[in-house]
Specification:
The chain is mainly β. The chain contains 8 helices and 32 strands. Strands 1-2-3-5-6-10-12-13 form an 8-stranded antiparallel beta barrel. Strands 14, 15, 20, 23 and 26 form a 5-stranded mixed sheet that branches.
């Protein structure tokens, strides 16, 4: 027999057929605990005559249900349940009576507890709608049931009793017996409501045992709107916690798990690899010479410290070497001490003041002593970098002279610093470079995609890129007039120009050499195409500092009449958007008015509006560092000269 069963199991394990089960009916029995909550407001009925009223009571009893279910759809069904519910409850209250001690003849007060215990049980019916919130109906992970609930009374009895609480010497005399507890009345209610009407809602989950059997834990709430007695105000509601066993009746269908038919692969066609062929016509252009104006990187002339520390962070450079700071002003801040030392070396009359500060006594209780230690750390590094000691002065303060918002972490981070204030030397200079020479013009570039699938050429495109062009042209054969702009070497009469082309995975470069010997030459006074200067402002301020005014005077002195000056604003993120917008406009206005005051109407000046703390066309510095926020408190100046 065992051998036969083993063979059967082995056979079914290799059966490639799948089984689909469809439920048509389900039945279950369940039981659990019912917690009932009663609200009564009566002191007498036909059966109960008392001198005190009843309020709220709580009962706990068993509940049993039998439920039949009929599914309607994948997630919806109907249930019909009938069951037994114990809704017994005990009301209690305290009574006081005046008494006289028969021994001492003293008057006093007797306190008793009156109990009204009701034994109530009902036959209850519940038709409801059942919804699968998670999963399908016959395998619902989370289900909801809601519907009316009807109750018919089975037992309806009560017992009134009273027990003396104090004094200990007080007794009742009942049938000649002395006792501290007595029964007032024990009977059945004669005014019980014949039917109770209410509403029920609950949640449940089906835990599968096998295909047809499930264990069903559920939690439900019910409330009856009908009074339990016809001559008293008495309502009840309850919470049911039940566990049941559910059995499903349905049908199974067998079907073969046949894989979908796979179409035969298309025949392979070998195409030659995609390539790009290029042609060009003669170059048309000129040689432009002149002076180039550019701005040096702005300096955030401060050293920022970690909290409660006077050690200069290791990110700061403290020695001169062959490395360069790069073009990013935030990264260049690491070289601030080296750059300040270079400025002092180039300007023998310059002096420097080191002003140390903290983020206040709450965050850095060491206060001015910590500020002095910070200035001494910076002082020592500048001495090692070659700055003479007699040119350095120091001072210390609890807060810096220009304090950031100390209520914010970013503000406290900025206040932990030493400001490096240089006198008799500019922190930033605008420089004119002499005799730049540049090739400018255009050439016609032809490009053809060859090879590959011919049917795909209608959707092909070719990408062309160089220093001054980056574009994609639709088609497999294109002709494009491309701008050419390249610096001319100091020696020689030819310029090498290169374009990069790509299409459908193919990549090539077009290289050509342009002879400059026969080209015409044109000289311009000043070129400012790549010019952008960053003018920093103090925290929450729109006043132009002496350094900013000096930079603007340098600029105005170099620009030809008729130039256009564009002023673009930005702010940090520490203030509100409205305040930042107003601050940016004030900074731009003050900058424009200062330029007007020193140049009259020689220039066209434009200002920009602020959006999201930065003007359109301006890239923000990172606000994650104090030097980045310092640089964002700025005005960008761009210049265009007529050439």
């Amino acid at each position: 027999m065992r051998f036969t069963i083993s063979l059967l199991l082995l056979f079914t394990s290799f059966d490639v057929r799948a089984q689909t089960y469809t439920e048509s009916f389900a039945a279950r029995i369940q039981g659990g605990v019912l917690a009932t909550f009663h609200s009564a407001s009566f002191s007498s009925t036909r059966d109960v005559i008392d001198c005190g009223g009843y309020g709220r009571g709580v009962g706990l009893g068993p509940i049993f249900n039998a439920i039949a279910e009929i599914p309607f759809s994948h997630t919806l069904g109907m249930g019909i349940g009938v069951g037994y519910a114990d809704r017994s409850v005990t009301f209690t209250r305290t009574n006081t009576y005046p008494i006289r001690d028969t021994v001492t003849l003293q008057d006093g007060t007797m306190t008793t507890t009156v109990s009204h215990a009701s034994t109530l049980s009902y036959l209850e019916f519940q038709p409801d709608v059942r919804i699968a919130l998670i999963g399908n109906y016959s395998e619902r992970i989370l289900g909801l049931s809601i519907g009316p609930r009807i109750a018919l009374p089975l037992t309806s009895n009560f017992k009134q009793s009273e027990e003396i609480v104090s004094p200990d010497s007080a007794v009742f005399i009942s049938n000649g017996q002395r006792t501290q507890e007595r029964t007032i009345k024990e009977a059945s209610y004669t005014t019980t409501s014949k039917v109770l009407y209410g509403l029920s809602a609950g949640v449940e989950t089906l835990i599968k045992v096998n295909q047809k059997t499930s264990i069903v834990p559920s939690l439900a709430f019910d409330m009856y709107f009908t009074n339990l007695l016809t001559d008293a105000s008495w309502t009840t509601w309850g919470i049911r916690a039940e566990v049941g066993i559910r059995y499903s009746i349905g049908s199974s269908a067998l079907h073969e798990d046949m894989p979908p038919a796979v179409p035969p692969p298309p025949p392979l066609i070998a195409y030659t690899p995609v390539a790009i062929a290029t042609t060009s016509s003669a170059f048309v252009g000129e040689i432009v010479t002149g002076n180039q104006l550019y701005a040096t990187k702005p300096i955030v002339n401060a050293v920022f410290f970690d909290s409660a520390s006077a050690e200069i962070p290791p990110s700061y450079r403290r020695a001169k070497d062959s490395s360069k700071s790069g073009s990013d002003p935030v990264e260049a801040h690491s070289w601030v001490l080296v750059r300040i030392a270079d400025i002092m070396a180039r300007n023998p009359a310059a002096t420097i003041v080191l002003e140390g500060a903290t983020s206040g006594p709450a965050a850095e209780p060491e206060g001015i002593i910590l500020a002095q230690k910070r200035t001494q750390s910076v002082h020592s590094v500048l001495i090692k970098l070659g700055v003479e000691e007699h040119r350095i002065q120091t001072s210390a303060h609890v807060f810096p002279q220009v304090v950031s918002n100390n209520d914010l972490e970013g503000g406290r981070e900025e206040n932990r610093r030493v400001d490096l204030i240089v006198h008799n030397a500019p922190l930033q200079e605008w420089v004119s470079t002499q005799r730049f020479a540049e090739l400018r013009g255009q050439m016609t570039l032809g490009a053809v995609q060859v090879g590959g699938d011919p049917t795909m050429r209608d959707s092909a495109s070719i990408h062309v890129a160089s220093r001054f062009i980056d574009t994609t042209i639709r088609g497999s054969r294109v002709n494009l007039v491309v701008p050419v702009r390249a610096p001319i070497p100091g020696e020689g009469d030819t310029v090498h120009v290169q374009f990069a082309l790509s299409s459908s995975g193919a990549y090539t470069t077009f290289d050509t050499v342009i002879s400059t010997g026969s080209l015409t030459q044109r000289q311009i006074d000043l070129q400012t195409d790549d010019f952008e200067a960053i003018l920093r402002f103090d925290y929450n301020s729109s006043e132009l500092t002496a350094d900013v005014k000096d930079l603007l005077q340098q600029l105005v002195g170099r620009l030809p009449q008729g130039s256009t000056i564009n002023i673009l604003g930005s702010t940090d993120i520490l203030g509100s958007e409205a305040r930042n917008r107003m601050l940016s406009e004030m900074r731009a206005t003050n900058t424009m008015e200062f330029i007007r005051s020193i140049s009259g109407s020689d220039f066209t000046i434009n200002t920009s509006q602020l959006r999201n703390n930065v003007a359109e066309g301006v890239s923000r510095f990172s606000d994650s560092t104090p030097q980045g926020r310092f640089l964002n408190r700025s005005i960008r100046v761009r210049v265009y000269t007529p050439n």
